[in-house]
Amino acid sequence: MTRAILLSRENDAFKAEIRDVTDTELEAATPGDDVDIEVEYSTINYKDGLAITNTSPVVRKWPMVAGIDAAGRVKTSAHPKWKTGDSVVLNGWGLGESHWGGLAQRARAKGDWLVRIPAPLTTRDAMAIGTAGYTAALSVLALQNHGIAPPSGEILVTGATGGVGSIAATLLVLPLVDEASTFFHQEPTPPTSDFLSDIGPSLVAFAISFAVMETRGWSLRSCRA
């Protein structure tokens, strides 16, 4: 038995509830999964919020345990890579959308989906970074792979007070670039401006419009690149 945030839909009636899920229910919903995980930490991402409040069609299979990520320890494993007690993190693979997710005390997944948590990081550390941090790191790595390095100049960061944006900005104000810029439709005021200042003194924030973007040499097309 495990406690979980379970989302269900019957006809047009949607329900989100915290309830006990039996071992039989969990195993029936995750056929072919070969690793059983005792979840220690998960996060509530923006996508989870959309799913739990039924404000966007995130869930593609019903019923669904919410949660697009999880970190914990292997309870049992039939996969050769994993043994009882291993610390692992799980995200992606349709978790919380088409595969039962991480907002539960127990989760099941295919061993090939799991990533080992290296020492000295803990399962709590992994979820403090979370899917947002993982996504931000991939974005910064992509910039590096495209040759962006000092003195490349300014880099545009959108949504810099959100999970992905704030971590991306934090990484970018390290020695990667001279200056990271984030833009708002209105001039940021405390506490937003204080939050951005805490990230790093080189983070610049100011009001933005498409006209301003053009004057700085950033076209809509180049921002999408």
Please provide a written account of the structure:
- With 225 residues, the chain is α+β, with helices and mostly antiparallel strands.
- The protein is 29% helix and 28% strand.
- It has 7 helices and 11 strands.
- The strands form 3 sheets. A 5-stranded antiparallel β-sheet has the order 7-3-5-6-8. Strands 2-1-4 form a 3-stranded antiparallel β-sheet. Strands 9-10-11 form a 3-stranded parallel β-sheet, covered by helices on one side.
- Helix 4 links the parallel strand 9 and strand 10.
- Helix 3 crosses helix 4.
- The longest helix is centred in the middle third of the chain and has 23 residues.
- It is globular, with a radius of gyration of 20 Å.
Give the SSE layout.
Blueprint lengths: L1 E9 L2 E9 L1 H7 L5 E7 L4 H7 L11 E2 L3 E9 L9 E5 L14 E4 L5 E2 L6 H23 L8 E4 L5 H10 L6 E6 L7 H8 L3 E5 L2 H6 L4 H5 L1
Parallel strand pairs: 9-10, 10-11
Antiparallel strand pairs: 1-2, 1-4, 3-5, 3-7, 5-6, 6-8
Helix pairs in contact: 3-4
Question: How would you sum up the global shape?
Answer: globular
Largest sheet: 5 strands, antiparallel
In angstroms, what separates the terminal alpha carbons? Answer: 47 Å
Order the strands across the largest sheet as they lie in space: 7-3-5-6-8
- Class by helix and strand content? alpha+beta
Overall mean pLDDT: 83
Please trace the helix and strand order, writing H or E for each element: EEHEHEEEEEHEHEHEHH
C-alpha Rg (nearest Å) = 20 Å
Strand tally is 11
Range of helix content: 25-40%
Assess the beta-strand content as a share of residues: 25-35%
* Number of H- or I-type helical stretches: 7
Extract low-pLDDT stretches.
176-181, 204-210, 219-225
